[in-house]
Amino acid sequence: DTEVTQTPKHLVMGMTNKKSLKCEQHMGHRAMYWYKQKAKKPPELMFVYSYEKLSINESVPSRFSPECPNSSLLNLHLHALQPEDSALYLCASSEGTSFYEQYFGPGTRLTVT
Amino acid sequence: AQRVTQPEKLLSVFKGAPVELKCNYSYSGSPELFWYVQYSRQRLQLLLRHISRESIKGFTADLNKGETSFHLKKPFAQEEDSAMYYCANWVNSKLTFGKGITLSVRP
What is the rounded distance in angstroms from the CA atom of residue B28 to the CA atom of residue B35? Predict the structure, then answer.
């Protein structure tokens, strides 16, 4: 399996809801990433996990809470989001946190109402 | 800040025409540079990385340290090359993308 999968594909949530995004890879990669991508803009890094430990947090608001339960799974827990958080959320993985190729998932399209 | 710059937002060419997508970087050391591509309704994927010096789908990119550039080139564009192209660099354990350029290849 050489793909990164993400669920759900689409998510609509209210500002008081709690939801989670899920990302999975079975390539044995030890680094996993969350990016946020607004329309017509490049992906912006949010979090990096290396060997299941959070190594980089790009000053992301606490309403976004990442979790790496094991080496294959990465979650992003969402709570009390704002409409401006509506975006495509991309997960990626790579062999390590050096300049390896990053493999991207298809993304979750999040709409906050 | 160490970044990559893609000065153009859109390039539109006819099929068979040469293509050059520009990327400039600001980094005093040895940069780690990449080109990623996003076709319509497909996921972002790696196209080229400068250390591999290979040609993928007819595209090449040469690192020019004198001009601090890493332009993506293809001698004869195909319609299936239409996509969004991002130049990216690896600095401080992070992949940072340029703003991207849309390539449109007309029949």
Answer: 20
| CA pair distance A38, A107, nearest whole angstrom | 12
Report the half-sphere exposure of A62 (CA within 13 A, side-chain side).
0
- Choose the closest CB to B97 out of A43, A56, A105: A43
Write the pLDDT tens digit of every residue in B65-103: 889 999 999 999 999 999 999 999 988 888 999 999 999
Q: B32 touching A, CB under 8 A?
A: yes
Q: Is B28 left (phi over 0), alpha (psi -120 to 50) or beta?
A: alpha
Q: Hey, is the C-beta of B3 within 8 angstroms of any chain A C-beta? A: no
B43/A107 touch (CB, cutoff 8 Å), yes or no: yes
- Three-state SS at B63: coil
Residue pLDDT, tens place only, B40-74: 989 999 999 887 777 789 999 988 988 999 999 99
